[in-house]
């Protein structure tokens, strides 16, 4: 395993990402950068390479908090520093693992000294180590929300505040914050997105020659890392010197009133919330000017700052991709250009501006996403009382939709209705799954409710309970001086209560009986609303659809709710109703997921009108399949999609076999739905251990 980093200047393409990282290296006050992109696009490689370009820092000898000898932190826990001895070292690159605990991030009481010496001492965390360096969070979207809040607060204030376990500490924590994520694995909440200064969207190039160069360089690096690094050593030195020069120039850059008015006008035009965007844009524009070697912010700096700082702040719906309307941006800049400047001939866009040719900002355009207007789908025959009846045949002169896989008519996908807020559906009992916002659980990050003897490896020591357990035995154990005499039986661990995320598996009826346009629009709107609820509660989601002759796993369990919304939008309808096949496929999916993640409890949401066709005893088969799921103790909800003046109550019958609540589309919004799952589960079989 080599310690030689891949050179920053050897990375091909990705001009915006390169520029965003360099601007933060010049001015950490910009607030960090969030890198969004598909897997395998060298996100992590570029971040690690940046650390090698940062200038060495002068530190106080022996200070664990990297105090600058020229201006020591007066609140440094290792201080005060009077005429300290100094040395130099490289800036640290601190990588934050996804499973990190809060005490590892901010630091905590030094338990070894507390128990052995009886003194209260602070053990620094990763924030202290990252001070004046780079804090890198790979897969930041998978990090627990309370940790992301904590990190972003420290990055914004430049200081970490620790109040825990009797320790009260303040120390400087200024660092270049970089987060990378693959949107397919789940999104960050909009509130957290807003806390990152800049965002960059990246994707692998589709140019064959450029891809070949990427592969060629990577193979050369793997074969001889040191030799490959030597090839780019000159470019690396030149870039490092440019960063140092830009840092020195930064305090001299003037943000004119005209440029400031353009910044605030752009933020107002794009209706961003709060004033953080204005501040970040101003800092970014100043850093751009310093990077270009200028002492005044120009319109091109404001434009580029907007392209980097605003796309992720324009989001209004969790399922909307970040983006920026370039025409609106140019129009706003021209309308608010300083009177002594000529806004014409500015190129109409950012091509070529910026030191690295980083003129291609994230494109917020793309396809509309709306489904094409399909022909009217045939309505259900509401006069029929046969659960196995199929939609009526087309009338003379009526357009015949394409045939589905089961021989029935297939309708083109229809758009979902507007999403709305749904009530909470929670799994009964107390789980032990990953932290989230749905069902009660014992979690690592919840509030402490009691102590207990350790069950397995001691993870979270309950200090006061441990001391109380050991105190009565100190005389008998021959305690000397201040040190405590502890035995294994004295240790107690914290029991923390919070909420967990669940696996919400949707089983959606896409058969001909659901194909009426108005009904399917309402059904998709309801499912989209539940998907949004899952997004907000940090759940994993999956989707099984059934129609024609069988069922398919339309969306394997994933944290990317956006993918689920896209699959729902594309869902066609038509054919018979193999309800039993859909339930059995759901049973198989949950069985596999239980083996992969036994602590994540499932919530099954069956979206159907309750009809079952496609074979002899289709209704009885669906009831047997429902009983199989109920016997496994799986919490379920049936979303009753039956409509019309004549209702057969088939969904409620199915819900009875599942041991589930049956909720109509109207009741999905109503008060009291939160208790339906719990009420239905109280009489259903308990989930198997």
Automatic annotation (TrEMBL):
GO terms for molecular function: magnesium chelatase activity. Residues 336-415, 428-453 are annotated as: Disordered. Residues 338-348 have a biased composition (Acidic residues). Keywords: ATP-binding, Ligase, Nucleotide-binding. Pfam families: AAA_lid_2 (PF17863), Mg_chelatase (PF01078), VWA_2 (PF13519). Transmembrane segments: none annotated. Belongs to the Mg-chelatase subunits D/I family. NCBIfam families: Cob-chelat-sub. This is Mg-protoporphyrin IX chelatase. It comes from Kitasatospora paracochleata.
């Amino acid at each position: 395993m080599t310690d030689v980093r891949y050179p920053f200047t050897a990375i091909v393409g990705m001009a915006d990402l390169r520029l965003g990282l360099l601007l933060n290296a010049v001015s950490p006050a910009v607030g960090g950068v969030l890198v969004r992109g598909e897997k395998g696009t060298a996100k992590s490689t570029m971040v690690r390479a940046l650390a090698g370009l940062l200038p060495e820092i002068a530190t106080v000898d022996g200070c664990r908090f990297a105090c600058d000898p020229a201006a020591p932190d007066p609140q440094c826990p290792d201080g005060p520093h009077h005429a300290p001895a100094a040395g130099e070292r490289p800036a640290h690159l601190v990588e934050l693992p996804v499973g990190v605990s809060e005490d590892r991030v901010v630091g905590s009481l030094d338990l070894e000294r507390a128990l052995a010496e009886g003194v209260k001492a602070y053990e620094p965390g990763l924030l202290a180590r990252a001070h004046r360096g780079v804090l890198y969070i790979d897969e930041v979207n998978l990090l627990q929300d309370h940790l992301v809040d904590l990190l972003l607060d420290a990055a914004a204030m430049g200081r970490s505040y620790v109040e825990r376990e009797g320790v009260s500490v303040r120390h400087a924590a200024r660092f270049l914050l970089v987060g990378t994520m693959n949107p397919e694995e789940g999104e960050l909440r909009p509130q957290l997105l807003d806390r990152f200064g800049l965002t960059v969207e990246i994707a692998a190039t589709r140019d064959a020659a450029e891809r070949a160069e990427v592969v060629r360089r990577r193979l050369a690096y793997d074969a001889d890392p040191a030799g490959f690094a030597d090839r780019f050593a000159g470019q690396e030195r030149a870039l490092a010197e440019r960063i140092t020069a830009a840092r020195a120039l930064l305090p001299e850059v003037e943000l004119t009133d005209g440029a400031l008015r353009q910044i605030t006008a752009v933020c107002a035009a794009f209706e961003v919330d709060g004033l953080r965007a204005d501040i970040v844009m101003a800092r970014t524009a100043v850093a751009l000017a310093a990077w270009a070697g200028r002492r005044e912010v120009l319109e091109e700096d404001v434009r580029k700052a907007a392209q980097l700082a605003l796309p992720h702040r324009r989001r209004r719906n969790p399922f909307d991709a970040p983006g920026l309307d370039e025409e609106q941006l140019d129009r706003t800049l021209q309308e608010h250009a300083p009177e002594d400047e000529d806004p014409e001939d500015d190129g109409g866009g950012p091509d070529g501006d910026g030191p690295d040719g980083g003129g291609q900002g994230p494109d917020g355009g793309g396809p509309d996403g709306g489904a094409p207007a399909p022909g009217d789908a045939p309505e259900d025959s509401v006069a029929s009382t046969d659960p196995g009846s199929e939609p009526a045949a087309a009338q003379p002169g009526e357009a015949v939709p394409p045939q589905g896989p089961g021989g029935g008519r297939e309708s083109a996908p229809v758009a979902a209705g507007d999403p709305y807020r749904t009530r909470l559906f929670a799994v009964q009992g107390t789980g032990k799954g990953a932290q989230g916002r749905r069902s009660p659980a014992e979690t690592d990050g919840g509030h402490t409710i009691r102590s207990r003897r350790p069950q397995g490896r001691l993870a979270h020591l309950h200090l006061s309970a441990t001391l109380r357990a050991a105190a009565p035995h100190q005389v008998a154990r021959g305690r000397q001086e201040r040190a405590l005499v502890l035995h294994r039986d004295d240790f107690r661990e914290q029991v923390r209560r919070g909420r967990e995320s669940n696996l919400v598996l949707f089983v959606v009826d896409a058969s001909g009986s659901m194909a009426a346009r108005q009904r399917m629009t309402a059904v998709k709107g309801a499912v989209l609303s539940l998907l949004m609820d899952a997004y907000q509660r940090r759940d994993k989601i999956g989707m099984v659809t059934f129609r024609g002759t069988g069922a398919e796993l339309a969306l394997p369990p994933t944290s990317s709710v956006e993918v689920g919304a896209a699959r729902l939008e594309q869902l066609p309808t038509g054919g018979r109703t193999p309800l039993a096949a859909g339930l059995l496929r759901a049973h198989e999916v949950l069985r596999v997921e239980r083996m992969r993640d036994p602590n994540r409890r499932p919530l099954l949401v069956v979206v159907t009108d309750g009809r079952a066709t496609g074979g002899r005893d289709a209704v009885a088969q669906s009831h047997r399949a429902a009983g199989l799921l109920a016997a496994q103790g799986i919490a379920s909800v049936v979303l009753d999609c039956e409509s019309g003046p004549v209702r057969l109550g088939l969904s409620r019958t199915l819900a009875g076999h599942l041991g589930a609540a049956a909720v109509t589309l109207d009741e999905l919004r109503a008060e009291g739905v939160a208790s339906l799952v719990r009420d239905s589960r109280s009489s259903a079989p308990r989930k198997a251990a």
